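Progress report, Aim 2. The chain analyzed during this reporting quarter is listed below.
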Amino acid sequence: MPLMILLALLLGIAVCLQGTANGQLAGRIGLPLTLTINSGMVFLGALGWLAIAHFSGSTPAERGETSWKLYTGGVFGLVIISCAAVAYPRLGAGVTTTLAVGAQVVTALILDQLGATGRQVPLTPTRLAGVACVALGVWLVMRPAAPSAQ
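Predicted C-alpha cells for the chain:
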C-alpha cells in the first residue's frame, strides 16, 4: 500500500508539472505542436513499456473481447494535456490544479458508487463531507487576495 500511495502522490506532482510545462511550451510554439510532441513522447514511452512487457513474458497470451469504452483513455489524455496547456498560463497552477482536483474527487466518488473501476465503494456521509472540504478548498484558492496593507 505505501507504494500505491507514493504512486498517487507522484501522479499529482506530475500532473501539476506537466500542465505548467505544457502551458509554457504552448505559449511559445503553439498548442498543436505541443500536443504533437507530447503525444510522440507518450507513444515512444508506451512502445518501451510494450517491449518490456513482451520480452518479460508479462503480456496476456490471449486477449478477450473488450468494450470500445475502455479505449477512450487516449481521448481523455488528449483532453487533459490540451486543457492544462490552455488553462495553466491563464488561471495559474494553483487555481487550475484546485479546480481539476475538485472535479476529480466528484467524478471519482461517482465512479466508486457505480463500481466503474471494478470495486464499488458506497457514497457515505463521511465521503460527502470530504467533497465539502474540497469545495471549500477550491473556494479559498479561487478567492481574490485581500488588498495588502501598506
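The two ends are 49 Å apart (CA to CA). The CA atoms of residues 103 and 135 lie 10 Å apart. These observations will guide the mutagenesis work planned for the next reporting period.
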